[in-house]
Specification:
Layout (H helix, E strand, L loop, with lengths): L17 H11 L18 H17 L2 H8 L1 H28 L6 H9 L1 H34 L5 H15 L5 H27 L25 H13 L7 H5 L8 H27 L13 H35 L10 H24 L3 H28 L8 H38 L16
Helix pairs in contact: 2-8, 2-11, 2-12, 3-4, 3-9, 3-11, 4-11, 4-14, 5-6, 5-14, 6-7, 6-12, 6-13, 6-14, 7-12, 7-13, 8-11, 8-12, 9-14, 9-15, 12-13, 14-15
Family: Belongs to the amino acid/polyamine transporter 2 family.
Organism: Paraphaeosphaeria sporulosa
Protein name: Amino acid transporter transmembrane domain-containing protein
Length: 464
């Protein structure tokens, strides 16, 4: 383990070296949110609340799209992907948490990028963070608008439902503190879990998949091992990876924990449950639906169960979008007000920056949701383009930064060092290959009519 601690003394940088000064601040300032008279207390989240917030950040979107990814890869490679990626995602989350313990002034993944690579890496990491979470925030809007479509029998233009969904997501994410939205994450998590459970039970009661021809022979499409094209396989792998890669959002929550030392415990409980749920739910749904699985998977058990599932799960879909957009807005909010008295003050500037930032994030998410209205394409694009370097490559770099001496240490230390270099290489491959794959599939979807023109009234809820 690294011997470097957050209280280590660092020699002052030259006065004209702003980057070095920022690094010193990140090492020695301690927690970003202060406690005491004159400060609005943001550090109010207990570890159980933290676990639920983490679980809600990860669980809702991934479980709705993994079954369709399993069809592409086959059941066995799909299960290996779920276990492998979730193990890596859990480990990377712990690396980020340990790095923050060593360097307590890091509020976000971008602060960590600044510490290891300077200002350019900080800005690049911040951009990737915003791209990643605005994309998955858009998936929350798509999921919510799909639910409204299903419940209303497509009574309005899909674009109008997207506007309604965006307003719902904005309102749900508007409280400033994670503590204030913790209670709704409980309700949102339970709603999605119950909805998925209903679908899992529902698909097991059908003689044949709801979307399949109800008479005559048909191709069921269940494969133990699939044979996808490179583009399709990369999209499926990126989708499964993305389903648990939102660990960069854990860090802003960690900054608002009563006791940040409980972070590791919260991560282990969250990721252990998520991995078990992903594996069991997706295998059962794919086993009973084959190629006829819907994306989001709530539509896989027929029209009646679809309405029941979406009716129960709509709260969870909305809360997912709200949490993702809240995290994105919180990053910008802290960057803008970090050195200002308004960061922890109930001032007009404080509220204006917060609500204005949140509104801007939701507007961008709405535009993306209207341009790419297919759920798993949004998740795959987020996974490959942003989460691969952010949630896999950067944690490898963070570990190397804190363990520089391992490169010339014992054999075991050299192996560990090499494995973290390999993590960075895997992230580059997933970023390039996955982004290529999803672009190819989105272009094909526009050509074959799976996606209509942007801002259209077409219902894409059954696309996969």
């Amino acid at each position: 383990m690294s011997t470097e601690k957050s209280h280590d003394m660092i020699e002052p940088a030259p006065s004209n070296d702003q980057v070095s000064i920022e690094k010193i601040d990140l090492e020695n300032d301690g927690e970003i949110f202060k406690r005491g008279e004159g400060y609005e207390d943001f550090r109010t989240v207990g570890w159980i609340q933290t676990t639920i917030i983490f679980t809600k950040l990860i669980f809702a979107t991934g479980v709705l799209t993994i079954p369709s990814a399993m069809y592409t890869l086959g059941a066995f490679p799909g299960a290996i992907n779920v276990l492998g990626w979730q193990f890596l995602n859990t480990y990377c989350a712990q690396v980020q948490g340990q790095f923050r313990h060593n360097h307590a002034g890091c509020h976000s993944i971008a602060d960590m990028g600044n510490l290891v690579g300077g200002k350019i890496v900080r800005e690049l990491t911040g951009i990737l963070f915003l791209v990643a979470f605005i994309l998955v925030g858009a998936s929350g809007i798509v999921g919510t608008s799909t639910a409204l479509n299903a419940l209303s029998n497509h009574s309005l233009c899909t674009n109008y439902f997207s506007i309604i969904a965006t307003i719902m997501v904005f309102v749900a994410g508007s409280p400033r503190k994670f503590e204030k939205i913790a209670w709704v994450t409980w309700a949102g998590f339970l709603s999605v879990f119950i909805a998925i459970f209903i679908v899992v039970v529902g698909v097991t009661t059908l003689d044949r998949p709801a979307a399949a021809p109800q008479t005559g022979d048909f191709d069921f499409g269940y494969h133990v091992i699939g044979h996808p094209t490179f583009a399709a396989g990369m999209v499926a792998a990126s989708t499964i990876f993305c389903s648990g890669a939102g660990t960069g959002a854990f860090l802003p929550v960690m900054s608002e924990m009563k006791n940040p030392k409980d972070y590791k415990k919260a991560v282990n409980w969250c990721m252990g449950f998520v991995t078990a749920a992903y594996l069991t739910f997706s295998i059962v749904v794919y086993w009973y639906c084959g190629k006829w699985v819907a994306s989001p998977s709530l539509g896989s058990a027929g029209p009646l169960i679809k309405k029941i599932a979406y009716g129960i799960g709509i709260l969870g879909l909305m809360v997912s979008g709200a949490l993702f957009n809240h995290v994105s807005a919180k990053y910008i909010f802290v960057r803008v007000l970090r050195d200002s008295k308004h960061l922890q003050a109930n001032s007009l500037v404080h509220w204006g920056v917060w609500l204005g930032t949140l509104a801007a994030v939701n507007l961008v998410a709405f535009l993306i949701a209207s341009g790419v209205p297919i759920f798993n394409y949004l998740l795959s694009l987020a996974g490959s383009l942003a989460f691969a370097p952010l949630a896999l490559g950067l944690p490898g770099w963070l570990w190397i930064y804190d363990h520089k001496d391992y490169r010339k240490g014992t054999l075991i230390q050299k192996i560990l060092y090499g494995l973290h270099v390999l993590m960075i290489m895997i992230s580059l491959f997933l970023c390039i290959g996955g982004t290529y794959g999803v672009i190819v599939q989105i272009m094909d979807a526009y050509k074959d009519g799976s996606i209509d023109s942007a801002f259209s009234c077409a219902d894409n809820s059954n696309s996969s």
